[in-house]
C-alpha cells in the first residue's frame, strides 16, 4: 500500500495577538499621507491663483474697450447715439477666441446701440460715473466677463442739470472666458508638470532618508545579536543617536538588574550546595552505621542522630528558601501596606512560646498603650522577627529570659522593634560580621545555619530600616551580658488621639 503522506504543518495564529507594526512604515505613513493630501490642495490653490492671474490682463483690455466706447456716446438732435465708425466697430468685436458683446443704454434704459440681450447690472447697485466695474454673468448659456460704466451726460454736454436727473447712460462690454481658461490651463500645466516630476523624486528621497535615519537601529540590533548568551555587559551608547540613548540606557539598566539576579541565583546555588553537602554526608554516614549495627540500642541512637541531622537539614533548606524569597522581593509585586507593629509582634511571640518553654526560657512581650503603625510587608516582617526571636532563644541558656518589645519615640517619627536576651552577648568586633551569610561565632556551640541574621538584614534593607546590636542594659551578669537587637523603622503616621493622651 502506498504510504500516506504526512499532513502539512499548520501554524496556529492567535486572532487576539497584537499585530506587530513597522516603525519604518509608521514614519513613512505619517510623512507621505500628509504629502499626498497636500498635493491636490496645492493644485486647487494653484488653479485659483492661475485664474486670478489670467483675469488681470484681460480685465485691463475690457476696461480700455468700455472706456473708449463710453467716450463715443454723444447727443445729436436730442437723441443719444454712439459715433462708432465701421472699422472701430469691427475692431471692438474682433477676437479669434472669444465672443465680444457691447451695449449702450440711455438714461431711461432705452436702447442706443449694441446687443440688446446683454444682462444688466443689479438694480440695487449705486452707479458711479466713469468708474469701471466688473462682474461675472451669463449670456446665451455661456459664461461671460462684463466691464461696465455709467456715463454722466451733463459733463459731456457741459450743461447744468438738476440733481434729480443725473442723465447717466450705461455702457457695457463683455466677452466669453475661453482665452482666460486657456491661459489658466497653461499656467497650471507649467506648475503641475514639474510637480509630477518632483513628487516621485521627493518620495524616493524620503524613503532613502528614512532608511538612512533608521540604520543605527539596525546596527544596534546587529551588535546585540552578535553578543554571546552570557554577555551581560552594558551596551555602548556613544555610537547611537541621541534619540536612541534612552532606549540603550534602559536596556543597560535591565542588563544590570538581570546580571544581579543571575549573580544572586548563582550565589544561592553555591551556598545551598556547600551547606547541604555536610548534613547530607552526615545523614548518609549515620544511615550506613545504623545498617551495620546489630544492637537495638545502637540502632536507636543512630536513628536519633539521623533524625536530628534531617531536622537541621530541613531548617537549613527552609532558611535558604526564605533568604532567596527576601532577595527577590519587589515592592511592586508585593506592595507594602500599613500595619500595626504591636499586633504583628504579639502574634510572632505566641508562635515561639512553646519553643521557649521547652528550653526553660522565660519569653515576654512589651508594647505601648497606643498603636504603632508602619508601612511594610507583613509576611517578611514576621520572618524577620521570627529569626531574631529564634536567634535569641537559641543563644540564651536555660533559666534565662527573652523579651520582645515594640515602642516609638516621643515625636512619633520612628518605631522600634527590639529583641533582648540574657545570653552570652556579641562582642563589638563580631557585631559587623554576624549579619554575613553562614557566619558563626567561634566557641558558641549552638546549632545553626548562620543565615538567620542575614535574612534579618535583607528584610530590614528592603524596608529602609536599620538594625543595631547593643548589650542588654537589664542584664548584669558579667558572663552573660546579653544582647539587644533593635530594628528602627519610620512610622506611617501618628494617631491623633496620642497627643490627646499626652
3D structure, described in words:
The chain starts with 22 loop residues before the first helix and ends with a helix. The chain has helices at residues 23-70, 86-93, 153-157, 178-213, 215-225, 245-292, 296-327, 341-351, 353-358, 378-395, 428-431, 452-462, 496-501, and strands at 73-76, 79-82, 100-105, 111-114, 133-139, 142-152, 168-176, 337-340, 362-366, 373-376, 401-408, 414-421, 466-471, 483-490. A five-stranded antiparallel beta sheet has the order 4-3-7-6-5. Strands 9-11-12-14-13 form a five-stranded mixed beta sheet. Helix 6 packs antiparallel against helix 7 (296-327) and helix 10 packs antiparallel against helix 12. The protein folds into three domains: 28-184; 245-326, Orthogonal Bundle (Helix Hairpins), CATH 1.10.287; 334-501, Histidine kinase-like ATPase, C-terminal domain (Heat Shock Protein 90), CATH 3.30.565. It is α+β, with helices and mostly antiparallel strands.
